[in-house]
């Protein structure tokens, strides 16, 4: 899966372990801030019915491929489309100009490959689930040859070694359907969606500070939408990054937004993933959950994201400072209808 700040890759065992403890006989789990869909993908693989939601289009595409789509339905067709895409002739255009020349996220040779493949996908008029699988194949291939530290706010001063390798498509790890019933992916604002959610367990992994996922991963949004938007700045961000704001990226906005989600969802079990760099304290989150059931908190020490460990750089890529700390505390807050045994901290 793509590199992603806030990814729960390292915490996946803790999250899925907590879900299994709360729902030992399975059930429907709703992930309202699905991001890369890593959590939903893991839960589907363990036999849970999963409902993944996110407001960004690239995240909805990832969830459609990794949660909603079933391997037995699409694998053969997806492999055939991916094989056809490998044969296209590279052709530079808008994407290459913006993200390989004006910005340097990808080498121009790979930019032209990405561009030609994306144009072919659009011309194919694929069914939505099949299109999502193929777009995820392209997104992940591009991610493997990018020249960033994991965020699309800046790029390396010199090409990263991986950026000089030719882009190669692979079939994404699309899972078989689950016996319990179909999984689904939706696209919507979590506050607006909360009142529609009824599930055996709801998992919330909201943005927790000023860092916008749309701004950090704007290239994926443009690649998936293929709308060739007006761009700005050194990173050639989509102009709508300036207007598509989330209350969860706002210090005054996050508490009422999260309280509205917590109050709106219908579920006996609620898990929130948060971080000690967030706008809300441990005490505030416990208070928010106290009316929902038995509250438990797990603390997990983790290294900060790779960009922080590299240090602070100016727009020329020159190191100009060091970060104040190299570790975070990740929290899992659990409000459940009965006390559960917490997964062992790693």
Primary descriptors:
alpha/beta, 11 strands, globular, seven-stranded mixed sheet, 15% strand, 346 residues, Rossmann fold
Structure description:
By secondary structure, the protein is an alpha/beta fold. It has two domains: 1-64 and 179-207 and 248-346, Rossmann fold; 71-174 and 212-245, no CATH class. Helix content is 38%, strand content 15%. The chain is built from 13 helices and eleven strands. The protein has helices at 12-22, 38-45, 57-68, 71-85, 94-102, 108-124, 128-144, 190-193, 213-216, 218-225, 251-264, 282-289, 306-310; strands at residues 28-31, 49-54, 184-187, 201-204, 231-232, 237-238, 270-275, 294-303, 312-313, 319-321, 327-336. The strands form three sheets. It has a seven-stranded mixed sheet, with helices on both faces. The protein has a two-stranded antiparallel sheet with strand order 5-6. Strand 9 (312-313) and strand 10 form a beta hairpin. It is globular. The model has no long low-confidence stretch (mean pLDDT 92).
């Amino acid at each position: 899966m793509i590199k992603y700040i806030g990814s729960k890759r390292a915490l996946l065992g803790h999250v899925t372990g907590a879900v299994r403890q709360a729902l030992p006989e399975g059930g429907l789990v709703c992930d309202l801030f699905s991001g890369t869909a890593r959590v939903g993908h893991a839960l589907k693989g363990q036999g849970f019915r999963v409902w993944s939601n996110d407001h960004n289009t690239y995240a909805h595409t990832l969830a459609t491929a990794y949660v909603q789509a079933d391997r037995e339905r699409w694998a053969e067709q997806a492999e055939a489309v991916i094989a056809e895409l490998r044969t296209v002739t590279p052709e530079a255009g808008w994407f290459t100009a913006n993200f390989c020349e004006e910005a340097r996220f990808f080498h121009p040779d790979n930019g032209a490959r990405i561009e030609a493949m994306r144009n072919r996908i659009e011309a194919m008029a694929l069914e939505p689930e099949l299109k999502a699988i193929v777009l995820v194949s392209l997104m992940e291939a591009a991610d493997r040859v990018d020249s960033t530290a994991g965020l699309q706010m800046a790029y390396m001063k010199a090409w990263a070694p991986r950026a000089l390798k030719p882009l190669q498509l692979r079939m994404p790890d699309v899972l078989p359907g689950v016996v319990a019933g179909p999984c689904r992916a939706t696209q919507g604002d979590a506050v607006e969606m909360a009142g529609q959610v009824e599930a055996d367990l709801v998992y919330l992994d909201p943005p927790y500070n000023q860092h916008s996922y749309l701004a950090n991963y704007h290239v994926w949004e443009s690649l998936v939408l293929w709308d060739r938007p007006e761009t700005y700045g050194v990173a050639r961000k989509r102009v709508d990054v300036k207007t598509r704001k989330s209350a969860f990226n706002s210090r005054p906005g996050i508490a009422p937004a999260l309280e509205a989600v917590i109050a709106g969802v219908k579920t006996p079990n609620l898990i929130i993933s948060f971080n000690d760099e967030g706008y809300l304290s441990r005490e505030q989150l416990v208070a928010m959950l106290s009316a929902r059931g038995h509250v438990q908190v797990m603390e997990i020490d983790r290294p900060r994201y790779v960009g922080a460990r590299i240090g602070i750089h100016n727009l020329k890529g020159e190191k100009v400072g060091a970060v104040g700390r190299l570790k975070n505390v990740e929290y899992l807050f659990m409000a459940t209808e009965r006390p559960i045994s917490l997964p062992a901290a790693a």
